[in-house]
Description:
The protein has twelve helices and 15 strands. By secondary structure, the protein is of the alpha/beta class. Helix content is 36%, strand content 16%.
Amino acid sequence: MRLNYGSWFRKRHSYQGYSFDRPLLLIHSDDWGRVGVRDWEVFDQLCAAGLPLGNDPYDFYSLETAEDVGALQELLVGHRDSAGRSPRVVMNFVTANLDFPRMAEANFRQVFLRSLQDGLPGGWKRPGLMESYLSGIALGVFHPGLHGTTHFCPSAVNRALADNGERAELLKTLWRAETPYIFHLMPWIGYEYWDGELPPDDRQLDAAKQMELIGMGYENFVQLFGSAPASGCAPGYRSDRNTRRAWREVGINVAQNGPGRLRLPSFSEEGVLNIYRNIDFEPATDKKFTVEGALRAAGQCFERGVPAIVSMHSINLHSTLKNYRASTLNCLDRFLTALENAYPDLLYAHDAELFEMVTGGAFHGHDQNVTIKSQLAPTATA
């Protein structure tokens, strides 16, 4: 029988969150498996079609390579916390891409998807990529989470296709180049569970549609990895009660939320543990990013018993169109080294372990003698 953690804790401890007796660091990373601009040939093709590319970092978003993933894995296994454990990266996967060849056969009048389990679409090639994911998972440094089935809102795309106007032409131009979208040129495309051009009260998709999309993403995920996801992160962080109910329905117990104020983990009314990112680690997209700033943010978390949760999107590890990977890994290495030196009781964790700490009151490492305790604090905001 599934425990209703949200109801149980809400009745006993209203407006309370969980603090921890040791410094905890988690790393969240979104957009894995999602294709963008394939290569420089496609980039030039889109520029020739009149798209103003080159000024936004996400113009150079492509797709990670096996070498990108392997370089991240190598860095992680070279670091250790106080218990001898390597950092864990929760890699949130988009579990399907547009099936460009099939859509071309239909003259781009309809959306078809190809799951990651079935490989990349059309001319996309990334030799050894799936094996590199699985290698890191086997070593315990990667932990896959569910980001979604797509990243864009299907209803927004279908509406643009039905209108058959400028937006449809832009979509078809991109799709002919096997590029799904470039968000800053078309923010109307929305996020998977959120249609931004509808009236405010209607923007989040209804319960049935969210359940359908999350169910599809879940099935793709299980086929890909052979296990269920422990946590979920809505594209664009656009989630609501219906999102959390659907996650709970498929067994996801942890909801990842976007950066904001320092907030302690707490249970939602739907019984999902809400956790909150609090360190933007985005060297590729944030001109103001510094390692020193990230370290200050981590210190503020530890002082308040809040888990330090890093947000680092996959673009930061890409190297196909721009080598974002080298500078990001340099920054991450400096960040982790400084934390290990400054906090002798530092512990690296992932979402399922955090959930175990909260629901069990303590976490005992599976292969190391380490215990960390959690306790309810008076408020969910630190």
